[in-house]
Write a structure and sequence with these properties.
about 425 residues; Adenosylhomocyst_ase-like_sf; Rossmann fold; adenosylhomocysteinase activity; cytoplasm; one-carbon metabolism; about 45% helix; NAD(P)-bd_dom_sf
Length: about 425
């Protein structure tokens, strides 16, 4: 069990004395999140979330801290827990509690039991809005805390994996409140997933393994927006990229983007670095690990640690030794070795610092406006997965462009009329 400090009533953080260090990082990140800062100032003036109880299960990073800061400025009462035990920044957690008044339940490196006690802690405040990243809060509510359902007006979901889970609940008829999936927003997945995850995954691999990408063969499993971002950045650094896909459309796109496509059983023999980014389980199995080159580096960039058969690797290995922080070398019965990064958890969150604030400005600005939208429209929304209003996406994108010194073109009256008519032909 990890060390834990319980301060006041109801919080779980490692050390309150880390708050000054965390606050300086939060303030620095805020300088790279101008759209969210504009929303925070607006929320502080209007208080659209006054008295609203919000529970979040999120990566406890400086960017998340600035989201919490914005929600509190809007009048919300916020409780937050970690969505991954290795992504929590303990100094940031301390600062969120001390400086923004949120109840925080997050300790880096905690065990599974403590992780779920943190989830329970966030839910102990009887939330009205759920802000999820991976659907752990949502799943816990529907499995174990159904008593909370009556008071919840809606929720949002940050990541692809969580959206899949919520759509499954909707199909099963078990979803108990309306959800607006942040991950469906263009201002989220086109940028955060592609540019943010693409960069933080490479960053995590470099920090954990200190490997040269140039001349290496990198295998990426999954060619969604995250996989595309990883492939693009690895290719740009000189790696030869192989894509593993189950979707023929995405696989074809990868081929036309210049990458080789093959099944994992074949790719396993060629790769030097392996990254899973599928949102599914058993992507790299023990059979795949057994046939990899000795010294192959294996990591995961999907939300849950089930994409790589870590349990099978540990069971089959004849030896294991840490070779660097966040890197463990496993010796297989054949004598070959495999290097696993971040114990199979999100490598960009666990071995690096997650997506930069510049791109999270888009995601969390959209998130803040979605929460305001839920608060204002919950009465008319049914328990289902609802689309993100395009007006919110456009607002965030335009503000981000302005903050970067760019303006878009406008349409003339004649252009508007042309686009909305059918009479004009050849």
């Amino acid at each position: 069990m990890c060390a834990m400090h319980v301060a006041a009533a109801d919080i779980m953080i490692k050390d309150p004395a880390l708050a000054d260090q965390g606050r300086s990082k939060i303030d620095f990140a805020a300088t790279r999140m101008p759209v969210l800062e504009t929303i925070r100032q607006d929320f502080a003036a209007r208080r659209p979330l006054d008295g609203l109880r919000i529970a979040g299960c999120l990566h406890i990073t400086t960017e998340t801290a600035n989201l919490c800061r914005t929600l509190v400025a809007g009048g919300a009462e916020v409780s937050v827990c970690a969505s991954n035990p290795l992504s929590t920044k303990d100094d940031v957690a301390a600062a969120i509690h001390r400086d923004f008044g949120a109840a925080v339940y997050a300790i880096h490196g905690c065990d599974r039991d403590t992780f779920y006690r943190q989830v329970e802690g966030a839910l102990s405040h009887a939330p009205q809005v759920i802000v999820d990243d991976g659907a752990d809060l949502t799943a816990t509510i529907h499995r174990e805390r159904t008593d909370l359902l009556e008071g919840i007006i809606g929720g949002t979901e940050v990541t692809s994996t969580g959206v899949h889970r919520m759509r499954s609940m909707e199909r099963d008829g078990t979803l108990g409140y309306p959800v607006v999936p942040l991950n469906d927003a263009l201002t989220k997945h086109l940028f955060d997933n592609r540019y943010g995850t693409g960069q933080n995954t490479v960053d995590g691999i470099l920090r954990a393994a200190h490997v040269l990408f140039a001349g290496s063969v990198l295998v990426v499993a999954g060619y969604g927006w995250c996989g595309r971002g990883i492939a693009t950045r690895a290719s740009g650094m000189g790696a030869r990229v192989i894509v593993v896909e189950v979707d023929p459309i995405k696989a074809l796109e990868a081929v036309l983007d210049g990458y080789d496509v093959m099944p994992m059983g074949e790719a396993a023999r060629h790769g030097d670095i392996f990254v899973t980014a599928t949102g599914n389980r058993d992507v790299i199995t023990i059979d795949h690990l057994m046939i990899m080159k000795t010294g192959a580096i294996v990591c995961n960039s999907g939300h849950f640690d089930i994409e790589i058969d870590v349990a099978g690797l540990k069971a089959q290995a004849t030896a294991a030794r840490p070779v660097r922080p966040d890197a463990v070398e496993y010796t297989l019965p054949s004598g070959s070795t495999v290097i696993l990064l971040a114990d199979g958890r999100l490598v960009g969150q666990s071995a690096a610092e997650a997506s930069p604030p510049d791109v999270m400005d888009l995601s969390f600005s959209t998130q803040a406006l979605l929460i305001e939208y839920l608060a204002a429209n919950a009465a008319r929304l049914t328990p289902a997965v609802h689309p993100v209003p395009r007006s919110i996406e456009d607002q965030v994108a335009e503000q981000k462009l302005r903050s970067m010194g760019h303006l878009i073109e406008g349409l003339s009256e004649a252009q508007h009329a042309y686009l909305n008519s059918w009479q004009t032909g050849t």
